[in-house]
Here is the input.
Amino acid sequence: MAKKLFLSLTGLSLAMVLIVACEKDAKTDEKLPAPPVVSNSFVEEFDTVGNLSAKGWVIVNNSAPSGPMSWRQGKYELGGKLGNDIVGFPAYSAVYNQNEFASVDLNCGSDVATLSAWIITKEIIVKNGDVLSFYTRCNGDYADRLQVRANYTTTSTNVGSGPNEVGDFSTLLLDINPNLNLVDYPVSWTKYSITVSGVTGTVKARFGFRYFVTEGGPSGANSDMIGIDKLEFVSK
Here is the structure.
């Protein structure tokens, strides 16, 4: 009688093991959820230009002769000889104050200069169809110019060493006011959009915003002040 009971219990144990094993196999066959898609899209509001380097951005001033300033925090304040003139202009997008944009002006050169001041994005993974957009405007008293260039071949920030050099940023995407006409750079915030094309597959790239003005500087016939705000990169 004891043997029969033992055999029955043994059979029951084996059956339970088989059931548990089948349950494990069934769970193993279940499809796991797909990992979340990591987007390469981002927005830069330029709230604190001083923190851009920590994000991988780079500022280079190749103006000649070079001046004391380059790309910096936007400027909108009272100034002038009497202290009550408005200097600069307010940001396009602001949360805490109207200086929340990136700006550059004639003081990136000295005397009469060829101005070439760059603000270069962090590394971005890009492909055809992606869109880079931003807002820009000028002060409007003298002619200004802005180029947007891309480095699709390396991840370097090499822009050469002289005011007329572009280094690895050989791809010109946009040239605002290349003829330096007084009325051809917007005096109110205007949005520009660039669609990435001509790229093979997916590459790491950087975009460079180049303030490029000939006969500029404090004693030049051209150059005043421009700003950029709310840069957005949309990965399609």
Q: What stands out?
A: The chain has two domains: 1-33, 42-234.
